[in-house]
Design a protein that fits this description.
The protein has one domain: 3-Layer(aba) Sandwich (Rossmann fold), CATH 3.40.50.720. The strands form 2 sheets. Strands 3-2-1-4-5-6 form a 6-stranded parallel sheet, with helices on both faces. The chain has about 200 residues and is α/β, with parallel strands linked by helices. The N and C termini lie far apart (about 50 Å). The chain is globular. The protein contains 7 helices and 9 strands; from the N terminus they run E-H-E-H-E-E-H-E-H-E-E-H-E-H-E-H. Helix 3 runs parallel beside helix 4.
């Protein structure tokens, strides 16, 4: 998709850890209108070099159309979105939240329901890879939620990752991520067993 089309929505990003930083940087580097918040503001500051705006308060992101969350836990997702000082704490709200945090099916469904009650769509979009994979443009993303939300998010997800798969409604993306992790675990265990046998 052309860079010009990537400016049609204002984006917000919450969570600048190793993965979050690399993902947000990809969006900033292609010219997206990106505002970023992180608990430790200094970790987000380098993104200014690529054109991102670093905000002081979560509520400063309330005017964004799409907000990405990449934090530690389900409770953190709740806190940053609709907690006492969260994005929606002063009345504003995004159209769509894209959550890439690794959280449980139950937490994801609870957050989805709360956002829906506030008129906000949610896309669960767990990722597979690491910071090096993201920088190389090879991150894979599995997404689930309303089809319209996926269609709105796809141009931005395509910037962040190389393989974006839509698997349907609800929390199906979380299940796909668990299946992927189990498969990786089995492959690693097989490699270990084979190595021991070979030795």
């Amino acid at each position: 998709m052309a860079t010009a089309n990537l400016k049609q929505h204002k984006l917000g990003w919450i969570g600048i850890g190793r993965m979050g930083y690399a993902m947000a940087a990809r969006l900033a580097k292609v010219g997206c209108d990106l505002s970023v918040w992180n608990r430790t503001k200094s970790k987000a500051e380098p993104l200014k070099e690529y054109g991102a705006k670093v905000v002081d308060n979560l509520s400063d992101l309330a005017g964004c159309d799409i907000i990405f969350t990449m934090v530690s836990t389900g409770d953190d997702v709740k806190e940053v979105l609709y907690g006492p000082n969260g994005v929606m704490s002063k009345g504003g709200k995004p159209k769509l939240v894209i959550d890439s945090t690794s959280i449980s099916l139950e937490a994801s469904a609870e957050i989805r329901a709360e956002l829906a009650s506030r008129g906000v769509q949610m896309l669960a979009a767990p990722v597979s890879g690491n910071a090096k994979v993201i920088k190389a443009g090879k991150l894979t993303i599995v997404a689930s939620g309303p089809q319209a939300a996926f269609d709105m998010a796809l141009p931005y997800l395509d910037v962040v990752g190389a393989g974006v798969s839509y698997v349907g409604e609800g929390e199906l993306a979380r299940i796909a991520k668990i299946c992927h992790n189990v498969m990786l675990g089995v492959v690693i265990q097989n490699l270990c067993e084979i190595t021991v046998l070979a030795e």
